[in-house]
Structures are given as C-alpha cells and as structure tokens.
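Lab manual, section 2.4: Encoding a predicted structure.

Procedure: take the sequence of the chain (305 residues), apply the prediction step described in section 2.3, and record the output as structure tokens. A sample record is shown.
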Amino acid sequence: MEFRLIMISAMYENGGNTTHRFLDGHPQLFVYPFESQLGTALVQDHLTSMFPVKYRWPVFALDSSPFNDYKAIIDEECKVRARTPRVSKFRHKPFDFDDDERCRIFCERIERVGRSRANNVAAFYTATFEAWKDYRRSGEEAFYVGYSPIVGVDGDKILNDFPEAHVLHVVRNPWSAYAETLRRPVPLSLQKYMTAWVTSQYHARIFQDLYPERFHIVRFEDVVTDPETKLGRVLSRIGLRPSPSLARPTWNGSELEEVFPWGTIRLPTPEANKATAESLSAEDVEKVRTWAGEYLRALGYEDFI
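Recorded output:
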C-alpha cells in the first residue's frame, strides 16, 4: 500500500502551525505532534542560503545506513521534547514517547524495505506513531500529516516521492505575517522576510499549476473565518470526510486555548489577524506592499489594509 501523506507548508508566520492544529483531531489523520523538520545537513542547492535546511525535504548519503539516516533527520522540536523535556517549549503537554524506540522501529522497517528517501520518510512517520504511546487513535486513520515551514518549495520532490501524497500550502497576508515575525527575539529584516515570502508563494503557485489535483493552496484568512468548511473542502478533494473537529485547534485531540507555542499566532481569528496587520507603521505597510508586488493581486490581498 502506498504511503499517504499530507504535507503542510507555509512561510513563517503564515498559519502553518495553526492549520496543523486545526487538522489535529480529525479521526482519519495521524497528525505529527510538532513541526516535522525532516531536513538534513546534506540539503545543498540554490535555496539553502534563504531557508534553513531543517525545513527542507531531506537528502540522504548514498553510503549511509538506516541508523545514520535516522540520526541525519533534524526533527529538532520532537527530539528536544523527547530527550530534554525540561528545555522544550512543549514541556507542559504530556508526551509518552521514546526517541530511541522510534529509531529502533525505523531501522527495523528500513532493513525490511530498503533505503531510499521515500522509504526513510515513510518509516519516520510510521515509527513516530508506533513509539508515541499516549497518542489518541480512532482506528480510522488513513493519512499522515506533517508540517514543515516553507517545505512547499520542494513540492515537486514530495509529490514525486509519494504518488498518493498531497501538499497543503497556507498563505497569509504579508502585513500580518511580517508584523508577527517582529515579535520574535531576532526577527528578519523586512527585505529578507518579504523576499522569502514571495519566493514561497512563487513555488506554491508553480506547483499548483503542475500538480493541480495534489498541491492545494488555502488562505489563512479563509481558514480562520470558517476552518470546518474550508479545510473540510480540501480534505474532501483528497478523499477524506469533513469533521466537526476541524472547527477548533487541538493537540492530541485536546482543545487548545491558544495556538502558541506551536507558532507565534496565539488566537486564530479574523479580528486578531487584522489587528496584527494594523500594528505596523504606515511606512512599513507601504514597504510590504512594494515588496509583495503582484502577489497581492494574485492572492486577493490588494485591499486587505
């Protein structure tokens, strides 16, 4: 049976974590607990200087081994929570999970099926849920769901590796997105942030044209206005049923009062989204407008602010 994956992509602060949490409680989905940072240090291409390799689709050494393949996957958020929970930003959530056990399960599977990028990624996800002891299963799970920021720039690799996979790319108006990133301890400059934002949307639109049935783009604004309807429609296209669980963000099925610390967005509402955009200075509003260029019209944001 083909491995079935829904990979969420979004530029930083564009609502990827929020969308990930809205999908979390769906009975037909195995939803990864944190960002599934699949990248390895071997990722080297024309985008490496712009985007951290931990967020990219992985590259594995030809002369490696299953154990070293597993160790090469960065997966920072999950490994920190499992191995040093006291320093994890998710330490307040119960998580009965042993990273060494996941490694053992991963290696056993790869010894059976053989090493390849597709097999390694499939083993990584399936081993995660075998090792996660307090995961709330429905017994109906049909797809795995991962999220890694900006991984949509590798959309062709994902979809070619897995013929039954889908990419769900989330885009947010650039004013709210840039204002959100200013809350980080060391934010990107406006020029660097907007260059990456445009690059992310460029790849998403190209891959949507190339893979119209499997690369999906949703606007954060539409998701937070009516997540049950908007995400339900996307899942229906994939062959899954809508669910009332889509109406609220959860973690392992438990409702979250706010999405933070899964992302900088705390309250996923249209009002909070608009207020975030309006927190920018008038000068920065116009600079963002200039750097976003034609994508404002293409994505329906010309009159957002």
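Check your result against the sample. The chain is about 45% helix and 10% strand.
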